[in-house]
Design goal:
This protein is α/β, with parallel strands linked by helices. The chain folds into 5 domains: 87 residues, Alpha-Beta Plaits, CATH 3.30.70; 83 residues, DHBP synthase, CATH 3.90.870.30; 170 residues, Alpha-Beta Complex (DHBP synthase); 92 residues, Nucleotidyltransferase, domain 5, CATH 3.30.420; 193 residues, Nucleotidyltransferase, domain 5, CATH 3.30.420. The protein contains 22 helices and 32 strands. Strands 6, 7, 8, 9, 10, 11, 12, 13, 14, 15, 16 and 17 form a 12-stranded mixed beta sheet that branches. The two termini are 53 Å apart. It binds zinc ion (ZN) (2 copies) and fe (iii) ion (FE). One zinc ion binds next to helix 5.
């Protein structure tokens, strides 16, 4: 019998996901000795024993890793025998190693779902979890990640749970939120003034209320949800009314993958996201319709699968194959996490409120994602992503990045890692601003972060910029679109000069104008603006985003003069004449009409011109509906003009108006418009590349959430021979600007 030793180094998502106990169990199973330890560079194993067993250990390791773990680097090198007498887990040695233990929340695992049907102390127990699954970030108060530092501290473990918790061979060894029906938290249903704590009765009643068209509030993992029957138009429109949310699409939770496939189109990549441990909302094309108010004017619906034991138990009772599951808040406020607030605020609009008595410490929304060119594209990065870090190639310790204002997310630098906060939201909302400040404090504490340098948006009036000014540390202002490109470079590990395409709704430019359709040559430190969309007045400033017809008017007047109103009255159909007069006056006299080169505003104008969306009720509605109107595979495009560094859309508008007058379908025109934008991207990049010799292209900004543009631009550019870099796990919108 020969005995050998090896050192194994593993990198990837291996911290805080039960990796060390897993290694321990695998080593013991193979009768091996040695140690496993964790630090912020990865997991390090020294293992020795019978050669054949050791080989088998190495083969099974990557095959049997916990669901939420993933390996990016796996190195094994022969080592000296150290004659260990057992296998052991070494304790974390430093704070920075403890930080790596703070993992995102993980959807309940298959093994736990089985245990929920077989373990006597956990039959149908809705807080079942193990080292491989369950709440993490949402319940942690402080380091080290240990039960007494979480919101589970108030629940004293029973003897059975303690035995599992302390038995290294058990799947619940050191599972901090471990619980069972004898010692753990429980649900309560509040209906009128009655309460019910029997889970069986809660589930039956919940199913009954949902089936009969009622609205309910249910506590989720990172916050409350509001729910109703997605096939019941009255229920869904009632929910819109009460929640004060006119048009923004609602997400659904669907029973299982089979049912998803029945109602929505999916590809293998989308199915992988749906069933993966993060259980995000995935945007999918509709096959079989839900009630019209679920997703007004769009061809997609955001769908997720169950991720809490309660969700699974509910679908066992429920006759419906899906439920609306939207964030439990009113309007733009942050989602409710507190039970009293839920009863108070959400209780008013729901028939019943279902609470449980484990506190949510860190609020997280459901994350939102979609697939383009076969790759995951995160739009809202929150539950099950936060607080996993983005690995960088350079040191960023002490840097605080305040983020933008509308879709805020901030970021802190620890070593060579950027830790992005969960999705915060629109800071103009007072409660959201409070949430922003509180989250910053919590991140400072949790990650032992002391800011020494702040990065803020160049925009002088952003509330995030204001926040930085109050800090007593040096700060640098970064141009918004440069930050978008830098974020894309960071995500892709690029540190060379790139040609960046930064298309979005708005961002403060160095010339004081509003930018948003930008081509720049840049690296992390500096940028050179190479081309942009022609400046157009934005009558009413930010207010135009609610009224795309104003932007349409600005474009038409800019290209065809004020007479366009009398020459082409058909284009202004349905627009209030008095309001139109006011807008014309503003444009003419340059009153509150800042200049913009924004791609988002261009999409607004076109969406209005085609009669698809003239007024909006939520952020980016006009471009989203414009995209939804375009049939797949449509051919053709319009011509555009490049004058120096300015891209003029005049020919595009001329041709679109002609097409409208010919009676061409707005959907077809929309498809051609999309194609035109992709061609604008390719042509400008080709020109800039000829001048500079740069072949590396980074695409960023909210416009690249448009699947058509992203896929077309990526394909055309790749075909032309460019190296194209896009976002995947960092949002391309303002939520991704901080890193
Ligand atoms: Zn589990
Ligand atoms: Zn117990
Ligand atoms: Fe932006």
């Amino acid at each position: 019998m020969s005995i050998t030793a090896k050192k194994i180094e593993i990198k990837g998502l291996v911290q805080g996901v039960g990796f060390r106990p897993f290694i321990y169990r695998l080593a013991v199973e193979h009768k091996l000795k040695g140690t496993v330890e964790n630090n912020n560079r990865g997991v390090f194993i020294h293992v020795e024993g019978e050669t054949e067993q050791l080989e088998r250990f190495i083969i099974s390791l990557p095959q049997r890793i916990p669901e939420a773990a993933s390996i990016t680097v796996f190195k094994e090198i022969p080592a000296q025998l150290e004659y260990y007498t057992d296998f052991s887990i070494k304790k974390s040695r430093s704070v920075s190693d403890e930080i790596t233990e703070v993992s995102p929340d993980i959807g309940v695992c298959k093994a736990c779902l089985e245990d929920m049907k077989t373990q006597p102390h956990r039959i149908n127990y809705p807080f079942i979890n193990c080292t491989n699954c369950g709440p993490r970030f949402t319940i942690i108060r402080d380091l080290p990640y240990d039960r007494h530092q979480t919101t589970m501290a108030v629940f004293e473990m029973c003897d059975t749970c303690r035995k599992e918790y302390t038995d290294i061979l058990d799947r619940r060894f050191h599972a901090q939120p471990i619980a069972c029906k004898h010692c753990g938290p429980w649900y309560t249903l509040h209906e009128n003034s009655r309460t019910e704590e029997d889970l069986e009765k809660i589930l039956t009643r919940t199913a009954q209320l949902l089936e009969s068209g009622k609205i309910l509030a249910i506590k989720g993992l990172g916050g409350y949800h509001l729910t109703c029957n997605p096939f019941d138009e009255k229920a869904v429109s009632d929910l819109r009314l009460h929640k004060n949310r006119e048009g923004k699409p609602f997400a659904l939770m669907v029973k299982d993958l089979e049912t998803v496939k029945e109602y929505l189109h999916t590809n293998p990549e989308e199915e992988k996201l749906l069933t993966g441990w993060r259980k995000p909302i995935v945007l999918l094309k509709v096959k079989k319709p839900f009630a019209p108010s679920v997703s007004i004017g769009l061809d997609t619906v955001g769908v997720m699968l169950p991720y809490m034991p309660f969700h699974y138990l509910l679908f066992e009772k429920l006759k419906l194959p899906a439920i609306v599951l939207t964030s439990g808040n009113l309007s733009d406020e942050p989602i409710v996490i507190n039970n009293e607030t839920a009863l108070d605020k959400l209780g008013d609009i729901s028939e019943a409120v279902i609470t449980y008595n484990r506190d949510i410490h860190n609020r997280t929304d459901d994350s939102v994602t979609f697939v383009a060119t076969g790759k995951e594209r995160v739009i809202r990065r929150s539950r099950s992503f936060a607080p996993s870090p983005v690995e960088l190639t350079f040191e960023v310790e002490g840097i605080f990045a305040a983020g933008a204002e509308l879709v805020n997310c901030f970021c802190i630098g620890k070593g060579k890692q950027a830790i992005m906060s969960q999705h915060i939201g629109d800071l103009k909302n007072m409660e959201t601003l409070e949430f922003y400040k509180e989250s910053i404090r919590r991140h400072e504490r949790l990650f032992r972060f002391e800011p020494s340098l702040a990065a803020m948006d160049l925009h002088p009036d952003y509330l995030s910029t204001n926040y930085v000014r109050q800090l007593d540390i040096p700060a640098t202002a970064i141009q918004h679109h440069h930050a978008h490109i830098a974020s894309c470079m960071a995500e892709n590990g690029l540190d060379t000069k790139v040609i960046g395409v930064s298309f979005d709704g708005t961002g403060y430019g160095t010339d004081g104008n509003i930018w948003g359709g930008e081509f720049m040559v840049c690296d992390f430190l500096d940028f050179d603006r190479k081309a942009h969309f022609e400046y157009i007045p934005q009558p009413g400033g930010d207010a135009v985003t609610k009224h795309p017809w104003r932007m349409m008017t600005a474009y038409l007047v800019h290209y065809f003069g004020e007479n366009v109103v009398t020459e082409h009255p058909e284009l202004f159909d349905g627009i209030d004449l008095k309001e139109l007069e006011v807008v014309l006056f503003m444009i003419k006299n340059k009153i509150n009409s800042p200049l913009t080169s924004s791609a988002g505003r261009l999409f607004d104008a076109v969406s209005s011109l085609l009669g698809i969306c003239r007024n909006t009720t939520y952020h980016a509605e006009a471009p989203m509906r414009l995209e939804a109107a375009a049939p797949p595979g449509a051919e053709g495009s319009y011509s555009f003009e490049i004058k120096g560094d300015v891209i003029s859309m005049k020919p595009v508008f001329e041709e679109m108006i002609e097409a409208l007058n010919r009676g061409e379908n707005p959907g077809t025109i929309s498809a051609k418009f999309h194609r035109t934008i992709s061609e604008v991207i390719v042509e400008n990049i080709s020109r800039i590349s000829r001048e500079t010799g740069i072949r590396e292209i980074a695409l960023s900004g909210g416009t690249f959430q448009n699947r058509i543009i992203l896929e077309q631009a990526e394909q055309l550019l790749t075909r032309t021979g460019f190296n194209v870099y896009t976002h995947s796990h960092i949002p391309s919108n303002d939520g991704g600007i901080a890193p």
